[in-house]
Amino acid sequence: MLTTDKNRMDEKIKTFSKFGALEGGGITRLSLSEPALQARAEFKKRVEALGMTLESDDIGNLYATYPGTEDLPRIVMGSHMDSVRSGGNYDGIYGVLAGLEVAETVIKEDIKLRHPITVMVWTNEEGARFEPAMMSSGIVMKKWTRESMLSVVETGGTVTFGEALEASGWVGDEANRLNDKDYCAYFEPHIEQGPVLEEEKLDIGVVAGVVGMVNYDIILEGVSSHAGTTPQHYRKDALRAASKVILDLWEKLGAIDKELVFTTGEITCKPNIHTVVPNYVKFSLDSRHKDPEVIKRVVEVIKALPSEVYGCKLSYEEHWGRNTIEFDDRLLDYVENAANALGYSSKRMYSGAGHDAQYVSELLPAVMIFIPSKNGLSHTVVEYSSPEETWHGANVLLNALVEADKNF
Q1: CA-CA distance, 121 to 79, in Å (whole number)?
Q2: Helical ranges in 19-145 per DSSP H
Q3: CA distance 374 to 389
Q4: Residue 376: left (phi > 0), alpha (psi -120 to 50), or beta?
Q5: How much is the mean pLDDT over the chain?
Q6: Cβ neighbours around 307 below 10 Å, total
């Protein structure tokens, strides 16, 4: 079996961890910020040193390509370089650097591939500076238009995505966008961002798809009154009502399926004054599962909520959702076979988080490869995967790529 260079892989992680580094560890590397542009410059320097041709499209996605022996569509590997605020050194960037290490191995070891190979960098996957997340892959897949996204203003600032993109110097040709004519398969290596692989002592996650989800806002409306003069039995306390609804939802949703996950991560309470009984509470409910029937039952539970709780009016709004995405069976087999041949333990699993690969899968055969995350943590400065783990993922990617090259 073929292997990449473990020391080179680790050096790549360490070098790119400098761009946007925070004191004490981790990074803040928001999309198209100065640290992100520094990372792009380093990527450009490295791919050109390898003899790869670097192009960008009209939304700043990068494509570094090395030719194959035949005139065939490209096989692409990649992910994103941007991070959340106070993020880690592995989320997103690992997929780019694993692809880069595979490309370096192919070039330096003179591994003959029929297809050209491309290492790709997506612009603004996180959405931490410019909402929404997965903006550029969404534009490519026509989830929204480029024009509407150019006018998005950065969170907490005044710069638009269009202004930042123009200033970056990375605006290329729309014709360079990922498409189903010039490309034939897509691999996205990634850290798991969860605890399963580590807890089950597994080396590789063979990602079969991205789970479906629904996201609702649930609203309780009561009456504001004085905290000192209003007897308890007269109160229409929206926060008390919301608390009961949250606990009831946990009980009912928890009984549906052991693999169902659900979260209330955002709460708005008004007037939010310590001497006033709350008259308005809105809370989010994010629920995810691979089986659409389970998601359907979640929605049924929400729709069966009472119209009034403790004298407070209850209503709900669907915020957004997605269907479960299934990745390509052939690519899944190549990843699984590569892990087995290399002697790595693995399991097929679904991603609970969204990734560019879920959009790409509507255009091209796609697959993801997971490596373990220490303590299951991600989107934090302590995010970590060991040099051994990052190397294992790159080795699986290399061998799965070679199989795809033979068969596509």
Answers
A1: 6
A2: 34-49, 93-108, 135-140
A3: 10
A4: left
A5: 97
A6: 7
Main-chain dihedrals φ then ψ at residue 9, nearest 5 degrees: -60, -45
Cross-strand pairs, 120 = 63, 78
Q: Which amino acid is at 180?
A: D
- Report in angstroms the alpha-carbon separations of 149 from 30, 36, 155, 156, 165: 16, 19, 13, 17, 11
* Cis peptide, bond prior to residue 365, ω within 30 of zero: no
The model's confidence at residue 33, banded by pLDDT at 50, 70 and 90, is very high
* Sign of the CA dihedral running 164, 166, 169, 172: positive
- Which stretches of 222-260 are assigned E, i.e. beta strand? none
pTM for the model stands at 0.91
pLDDT > 70 fraction of the chain, expressed in percent and rounded: 100
Q: What is the pLDDT of residue 160?
A: 98
- Specify the DSSP class assigned to residue 105: H
Asked if 75 contacts 405 with a C-beta cutoff of 8 angstroms, the reply is yes
- DSSP designation for 228: T
Give the count of alpha carbons within 13 A of 352, CB side only.
Answer: 16
Q: Two tokens at 284?
A: 């989010």
Cβ neighbours of residue 384 closer than 8 Å, sequence gap 6 or more: 88, 89, 90, 373, 374, 377
Report the C-alpha gap between 289 and 291 in whole angstroms.
6
Query: How far, in Å, CA of 284 to CA of 269, rounded?
Result: 12
User: Which tokens belong to 298?
Assistant: 């979640």
CA angle 132, 357, 213 (to 5 degrees): 60
Q: Which residues contact 328 (CB under 8 A, 6 or more apart)?
A: 185, 361, 365, 366, 367
Domains and CATH numbers, the chain: 6-211+324-407 (3.40.630.10), 212-322 (3.30.70.360)
